[in-house]
## 1
Amino acid sequence: MNVIRLIECMDFMMNAYDVTDVFTVMPLCGCVGSRILCMHGGLSPQLKDFEQLRNIPRPLEPVSPSLEMDLLWADPVVGIQGFEPNLRGASFGFGEDVVIDVCKRLDIDMIARAHQVVQDGYEFFGNRRLVTVFSAPHYCGQFDNAAASMIVDENLVCSFQILRPQAMPGQTRLVKTVRNKTEKLSSEL
C-alpha cells in the first residue's frame, strides 16, 4: 500500500469512526484490590480522597491546571520535596514525600503508573511505594529500553514480565522475568 493511500485510509477511518472520542469517557485511574492505585501520569496537589476520583465528570477534556491533567501528566522526580512545575510544561513533578503521604491518606500500598521511559521496563520510586511500568520496548526507535508488564496475583503479590529489545529495531523477544523479586506489599510505612 503506498503512503498516500494509507493516509487517505487513516483519514477516512478517523472521520467515519472518531475513536478518539472513546478516550473522553474512559476512567483516568483505577484501583486493584483497594490497595494499588493505577493511573497514566501521576499525583496531584488537588487529590484528597477516592471520592474525587469517582466523581470526575465525563466526557472529559482536561484543562491545565486540574486534577485530571495531573493524573495524565505528573511525574515523580528524584530529589525534590512536594510539588514543582513539570519540565514537560504541563502539570507537576512530585517527590517521594508526596508518594508516602498519598499512600497513607488513601490507605493504599502502592501507586502504579506509566508515562515515562524507564530503562528496565519498570522502576520503583518513593521507598517502593510507586512503580513506573513502561510497555514500549526500544521506544520510538530512539531508546534502548526494555518494556514490562506488572502481574498482580490474587494476593496482591506483584511480579514483572520483561520484554527486551533485540539488536535490530522492531524485533523483540519475550524474556522470562528478569527480576523475580516478587513480594507482598506491606501497608506499613
## 2
Amino acid sequence: MSCQLRAVPICFFYLIFWIARLLLPLNTNILLAIKKLLSDGVYVEKININEKESKGKTSLK
C-alpha cells in the first residue's frame, strides 16, 4: 500500500509537468509538428476510405 500511495503524487506531478510543458510557448513548434502528424494521419485515413469506396462502386458496376 505504501508504495502505491507514494506513486500517486509522483504520477500526478508528472502529468502536471507534461501539461505545463505543452502549454509553454517555447514548445509551439512541437505542438505544430504533432498537429501536422495528426492531420496527415487523418488525411491518409480519408484517402484510404475514398479508395475503398471507389473500389466498391466499380465492383457494383
## 3
Amino acid sequence: MIIYIAVAAMSGLTILVLLHGLRSLVLSGSKLESRLQPFAIPGAPTDEVAEKQPDLSDRLNSYFNTRTFAGSIADKLWQAGVELTVPQYVLIKLAAALIPFVVFVLMRRSVLGIVFGLLCFLIPNLWLRRKNRRRRAEFEQQLPDTLTLIVGGLRAGFSLQHSLVNVAKQAPEPTAAEFKRIGQEVHLGVPLLQALDNLVQRM
C-alpha cells in the first residue's frame, strides 16, 4: 500500500512539474493573435512579437498548428474562455489519462487502468463544454446592454467600428473579449462584416 501511495504522490508531482514546464513553453502574450493568424490577409499590418519563443515552444506550436484538429481545439478553448494553448490542453489530457492508467497497472488492474484512463482523458472535454455553455449564457444575458452601447455610439455620430471598440472597452466579460477579438481580426485584415459573422458562429 505504501508503494501505491508513493506512486500516486510521484504522479501528482509529475503533473505539477509538467504544468510548470508548459507555462514556460508558450508566450505570455499574443495568444489571440497567433490563433487569428490564419485569417490574416497577406500584407496586412501586424504587431511584432515582443519576445522570441523558445525553440521547443516553436516546434510544439508549429506541430499543432499544422494539424487539422488544432484549429477546432483552439476555437473550443476560446469559446470557453480558457487561457490555454492547444499543446498545453493536449498534454494535460494525456497526463490526466496516463497517471490513473499507470497506478492501476502497478496494482495489476490493467482493465481498470484503461477504463479510468479513458474517463480521465474525456473529463477535460466535459469541463470545457460546461464552461462554454456558461460563457455563452453570460454573453446572451449581456446582449441587450451591448446593443444599447452600439446604438448609443451610432447616435452620437461614431462609426460602427468605433462603436464596437467602445463596447470592447466598456462591456463586461465575456462580451469585452469577443469584441476585442473583432478588433484583432479587423487589424489582421479581416473585413468587418466577416469578423461580425465569426462572432455569430462562435456564440
